[in-house]
Write a structure and sequence with these properties.
Chain lengths: 192, 176
């Protein structure tokens, strides 16, 4: 996908910039963007390091067994052909829990570990398996209970009531997640 | 609301407490295990850095060339029919592509229109209920060198659209 979109984005931007006389801004943005990407990664580094370490402890204790039990019925619905004792199943469970708790920086490493496990069982190494699609979809669904980033943003802009958006966020998230899961289930069944 | 505030503040420390208590109770070498996991964390960040550089660079071009504004100007009359505030359009378009760019746009919307205005609240709900879909799909597929992503982009974007429409409807019910 990005093999197509990425060059298109860049090429049409350059053509448009030349035609509209914005080429100076575009030139400047090269340095800004690359800088931002590195700064963003460095910001990510500390939290990812910390939460990967903490989650490693969690995975090695009985917490994971308890949470596995709680999420088992849901996992069975979402990943019907995945063995509950599989390592991928545990990583996916932790990934979902981290997402729900709003630990985005912890969720990503766990999700990436899970997809690497799923890849071992994947028969077509260059194509996403059904389980991988469901995992990615769950991670694009923003399943968090507390939208921490937005709350801190609203707080920093001196909102009278920063938390009043939480309930509508829940409603919109649930609608989006249910729509995504339903359409994925249908398309998997159709063999697409 | 005070309770929800409190929950958001204590959730991280409580989770850390529970993890460490269990580790100590089961007599694990918690710091050794922590270090092992932390190293994996560093590897993951370095793995996604090239993706980030590539995407940030392309998005910077889209924004600074002016083509993004051009597309928004074309789309806005169509979206106006559905009573969607015009200010929201850039956010809705960028949200699936870039987390940091959409956060910047959302901040701008809230500063321009007021954080407690209808548009400000709607921007908050959209930010809270959606993810950077395209970035997530790119990171996950490139991590295991997938070339064929099947219908996952389609399904995830449908979920985003449903999320945004739900956000508009629920905000109209609660905040108007």
């Amino acid at each position: 996908m990005l093999n197509v979109l990425w060059p298109i984005f860049i090429i049409i931007s350059i053509i448009y910039a030349i035609l509209s006389g914005n080429i100076e801004n575009v030139n400047k943005s090269i340095f800004d963007s690359v800088d931002n990407a590195v700064k963003f990664s460095i910001n990510l580094l500390g939290m990812t390091c910390l939460w990967s370490g903490l989650m490693e402890i969690a995975v090695n204790t009985n917490i994971i067994r308890f949470l596995n039990k709680v999420l088992k019925p849901i996992m069975k619905k979402l990943f019907p052909d995945l063995e509950p004792e599989n390592k991928a199943s545990k990583d996916i469970t932790m990934n979902i829990i981290a997402n729900i708790l709003g630990l985005g920086n912890a969720a990503t490493p766990l999700g990436l570990k899970a997809i690497e496990e799923l890849q071992k069982e994947n028969n077509h190494k260059e194509t996403l398996s059904d389980n991988m699609i469901m995992l990615i979809l769950l991670n694009t669904a923003s399943l968090q209970i507390i939208p921490t980033t937005v709350l801190s943003l609203r707080n920093s802009l001196q909102s009278d009531n920063p938390t009043e958006i939480i309930f509508p966020v829940w409603v919109a998230t649930i609608c989006a997640a249910l729509a995504g899961i339903t359409i994925t289930k249908i398309l998997i069944k159709k063999g697409m | 609301m005070k309770i929800i505030n409190y929950v958001s503040i204590v959730s991280m420390p409580i989770l850390i407490f529970i993890i460490l208590m269990n580790g100590v109770k089961e007599r694990k070498n918690v710091f050794d295990i922590f270090l092992k996991g932390a190293v994996e964390g560093i590897e993951i960040v370095f793995k996604i850095l090239p993706t980030l550089v590539g995407l940030f660079f392309a998005i910077g071009f889209l924004r600074n060339s002016g083509i993004l504004d051009f597309i928004i100007n074309i789309i806005s009359p169509i979206i106006n029919i559905f009573h969607v505030p015009k200010e929201i359009i850039p956010l809705a378009l960028i949200r699936p592509i870039s987390g940091s760019a959409s956060l910047a746009i959302a901040t701008d919307i809230m500063q321009q229109n007021g954080v407690d205005s209808f548009v400000g609240k709607l921007a908050s709900v959209i930010m809270g209920s959606t993810e950077t879909t395209i970035y997530t799909i790119a990171v996950y597929s490139s991590c295991v060198k997938i070339k064929n992503i099947r219908f996952v982009l389609f399904a995830a974007l449908i979920a985003d659209i449903v999320g945004m429409i739900s956000a508009i409807i629920i905000c109209n019910i609660i905040f108007v």
